[in-house]
Design a protein that fits this description.
Elements: H1 2-8, H2 19-44, H3 66-106, E1 115-117, E2 128-133, H4 136-142, E3 145-149, H5 155-176
Antiparallel strand pairs: 1-2, 2-3
Length: 177
Protein backbone atom coordinates (compact mmCIF):
# COMPACT_ATOMS: atom_id res chain seq x y z
CA UNK A 1 0.00 0.00 0.00
CA UNK A 2 2.82 2.40 0.89
CA UNK A 3 4.43 1.46 -2.37
CA UNK A 4 1.38 2.69 -4.29
CA UNK A 5 1.34 6.01 -2.46
CA UNK A 6 5.00 6.63 -3.21
CA UNK A 7 4.58 5.78 -6.83
CA UNK A 8 1.63 8.16 -7.24
CA UNK A 9 3.31 11.14 -5.54
CA UNK A 10 4.43 14.08 -7.67
CA UNK A 11 8.03 13.94 -6.47
CA UNK A 12 8.44 10.46 -7.85
CA UNK A 13 7.16 11.63 -11.21
CA UNK A 14 10.03 12.52 -13.55
CA UNK A 15 9.38 14.20 -16.87
CA UNK A 16 12.07 14.15 -19.49
CA UNK A 17 12.23 17.42 -21.42
CA UNK A 18 13.15 17.31 -25.06
CA UNK A 19 15.85 19.98 -24.82
CA UNK A 20 16.37 20.17 -28.57
CA UNK A 21 12.71 21.02 -29.23
CA UNK A 22 12.60 23.51 -26.33
CA UNK A 23 15.78 25.18 -27.54
CA UNK A 24 14.46 25.41 -31.11
CA UNK A 25 11.17 26.89 -29.89
CA UNK A 26 12.97 29.47 -27.72
CA UNK A 27 15.26 30.42 -30.62
CA UNK A 28 12.21 30.84 -32.85
CA UNK A 29 10.55 33.09 -30.26
CA UNK A 30 13.75 35.15 -29.80
CA UNK A 31 14.07 35.54 -33.57
CA UNK A 32 10.46 36.69 -33.90
CA UNK A 33 10.91 39.20 -31.04
CA UNK A 34 14.17 40.52 -32.53
CA UNK A 35 12.44 40.95 -35.89
CA UNK A 36 9.54 42.78 -34.26
CA UNK A 37 11.91 45.02 -32.27
CA UNK A 38 13.83 45.85 -35.46
CA UNK A 39 10.57 46.82 -37.16
CA UNK A 40 9.57 49.03 -34.23
CA UNK A 41 13.03 50.61 -34.24
CA UNK A 42 12.78 51.46 -37.94
CA UNK A 43 9.30 52.89 -37.39
CA UNK A 44 10.52 55.02 -34.48
CA UNK A 45 13.78 56.15 -36.08
CA UNK A 46 14.16 59.88 -35.68
CA UNK A 47 10.99 60.20 -33.60
CA UNK A 48 11.47 58.16 -30.44
CA UNK A 49 14.60 56.87 -28.70
CA UNK A 50 14.32 53.10 -28.22
CA UNK A 51 16.58 50.66 -26.38
CA UNK A 52 17.64 48.16 -29.02
CA UNK A 53 20.84 46.64 -27.59
CA UNK A 54 20.99 43.02 -26.51
CA UNK A 55 23.23 42.53 -23.46
CA UNK A 56 25.67 39.65 -23.50
CA UNK A 57 25.20 36.89 -20.93
CA UNK A 58 28.91 36.07 -20.84
CA UNK A 59 32.19 37.60 -21.92
CA UNK A 60 32.99 34.77 -24.32
CA UNK A 61 30.77 33.39 -27.08
CA UNK A 62 28.96 30.18 -26.20
CA UNK A 63 25.68 28.34 -26.62
CA UNK A 64 23.07 29.58 -24.15
CA UNK A 65 21.33 27.07 -21.92
CA UNK A 66 17.53 26.93 -21.63
CA UNK A 67 17.38 29.29 -18.64
CA UNK A 68 19.47 31.94 -20.40
CA UNK A 69 17.40 31.60 -23.58
CA UNK A 70 14.25 32.10 -21.51
CA UNK A 71 15.71 35.22 -19.84
CA UNK A 72 16.75 36.57 -23.25
CA UNK A 73 13.25 35.95 -24.61
CA UNK A 74 11.66 37.64 -21.58
CA UNK A 75 14.00 40.65 -21.84
CA UNK A 76 13.22 41.03 -25.55
CA UNK A 77 9.48 40.72 -24.90
CA UNK A 78 9.73 43.45 -22.27
CA UNK A 79 11.70 45.71 -24.65
CA UNK A 80 9.16 45.16 -27.43
CA UNK A 81 6.33 46.04 -25.05
CA UNK A 82 8.17 49.21 -23.92
CA UNK A 83 8.81 50.19 -27.55
CA UNK A 84 5.14 49.75 -28.39
CA UNK A 85 4.13 51.95 -25.44
CA UNK A 86 6.62 54.68 -26.41
CA UNK A 87 5.46 54.63 -30.04
CA UNK A 88 1.80 54.69 -29.01
CA UNK A 89 2.46 57.69 -26.76
CA UNK A 90 4.37 59.50 -29.53
CA UNK A 91 1.56 58.82 -32.01
CA UNK A 92 -0.95 60.18 -29.50
CA UNK A 93 1.11 63.40 -29.13
CA UNK A 94 1.48 63.75 -32.91
CA UNK A 95 -2.27 63.26 -33.41
CA UNK A 96 -3.01 65.93 -30.79
CA UNK A 97 -0.57 68.30 -32.53
CA UNK A 98 -2.25 67.65 -35.91
CA UNK A 99 -5.60 68.53 -34.35
CA UNK A 100 -4.09 71.67 -32.77
CA UNK A 101 -2.68 72.71 -36.15
CA UNK A 102 -6.08 72.27 -37.82
CA UNK A 103 -7.71 74.41 -35.12
CA UNK A 104 -4.92 76.97 -35.39
CA UNK A 105 -5.36 77.22 -39.17
CA UNK A 106 -9.11 77.66 -38.75
CA UNK A 107 -8.88 80.38 -36.05
CA UNK A 108 -5.36 81.88 -35.71
CA UNK A 109 -6.49 84.63 -33.29
CA UNK A 110 -7.42 81.99 -30.70
CA UNK A 111 -3.88 80.57 -30.72
CA UNK A 112 -1.70 83.68 -30.41
CA UNK A 113 2.05 83.03 -30.66
CA UNK A 114 1.61 79.24 -30.80
CA UNK A 115 4.32 77.49 -32.82
CA UNK A 116 4.19 73.88 -34.03
CA UNK A 117 7.23 72.33 -35.69
CA UNK A 118 7.31 69.59 -38.29
CA UNK A 119 9.05 67.42 -35.70
CA UNK A 120 6.05 67.86 -33.36
CA UNK A 121 3.87 66.44 -36.15
CA UNK A 122 6.21 63.55 -36.92
CA UNK A 123 7.13 64.98 -40.32
CA UNK A 124 10.68 64.93 -41.71
CA UNK A 125 12.66 68.08 -42.31
CA UNK A 126 12.69 71.54 -40.80
CA UNK A 127 9.95 74.12 -40.59
CA UNK A 128 7.09 75.19 -38.40
CA UNK A 129 3.68 76.82 -38.32
CA UNK A 130 3.52 79.97 -36.20
CA UNK A 131 0.45 82.06 -35.28
CA UNK A 132 1.59 85.69 -35.60
CA UNK A 133 -0.02 89.11 -36.01
CA UNK A 134 -0.33 90.43 -39.54
CA UNK A 135 1.54 93.75 -39.96
CA UNK A 136 3.43 93.43 -36.65
CA UNK A 137 2.29 95.56 -33.67
CA UNK A 138 -0.52 97.18 -35.66
CA UNK A 139 -1.98 93.79 -36.51
CA UNK A 140 -1.64 92.70 -32.89
CA UNK A 141 -3.64 95.75 -31.75
CA UNK A 142 -6.25 95.30 -34.48
CA UNK A 143 -6.59 91.54 -33.90
CA UNK A 144 -5.30 90.54 -37.35
CA UNK A 145 -3.69 87.16 -36.81
CA UNK A 146 -2.45 84.59 -39.33
CA UNK A 147 -0.57 81.33 -39.39
CA UNK A 148 2.77 81.71 -41.08
CA UNK A 149 4.50 78.63 -42.47
CA UNK A 150 8.28 78.66 -42.43
CA UNK A 151 10.06 77.56 -45.56
CA UNK A 152 12.21 74.97 -43.85
CA UNK A 153 15.95 74.98 -43.23
CA UNK A 154 17.34 78.16 -44.78
CA UNK A 155 20.81 77.75 -43.28
CA UNK A 156 21.78 74.57 -45.14
CA UNK A 157 22.71 76.34 -48.39
CA UNK A 158 24.31 79.25 -46.58
CA UNK A 159 26.47 76.96 -44.43
CA UNK A 160 27.68 75.15 -47.52
CA UNK A 161 28.66 78.47 -49.10
CA UNK A 162 30.53 79.50 -45.94
CA UNK A 163 32.39 76.18 -45.87
CA UNK A 164 33.36 76.53 -49.54
CA UNK A 165 34.55 80.08 -48.90
CA UNK A 166 36.67 78.91 -45.96
CA UNK A 167 38.19 76.13 -48.07
CA UNK A 168 38.99 78.66 -50.80
CA UNK A 169 40.73 80.95 -48.30
CA UNK A 170 42.74 78.02 -46.94
CA UNK A 171 43.81 77.05 -50.46
CA UNK A 172 44.87 80.64 -51.21
CA UNK A 173 46.82 80.80 -47.93
CA UNK A 174 48.68 77.60 -48.85
CA UNK A 175 49.55 78.97 -52.28
CA UNK A 176 50.79 82.25 -50.81
CA UNK A 177 52.77 80.54 -48.01
Amino acid sequence: MVDLLERDSLTALRVDVDERAARAELRRQVGRLEHELAGLLSEAFGRVELDYGVPAFAAEPRVLDLGELERLRDDLAERVADARVKLRERERVETANHELLQQMLAAPAEFKWVQISRDDLGLPGCGHWHSRPRLGPLGMLMGWWRVKVSSGCPLAGRLTAVEQEAQGEATEARRAG
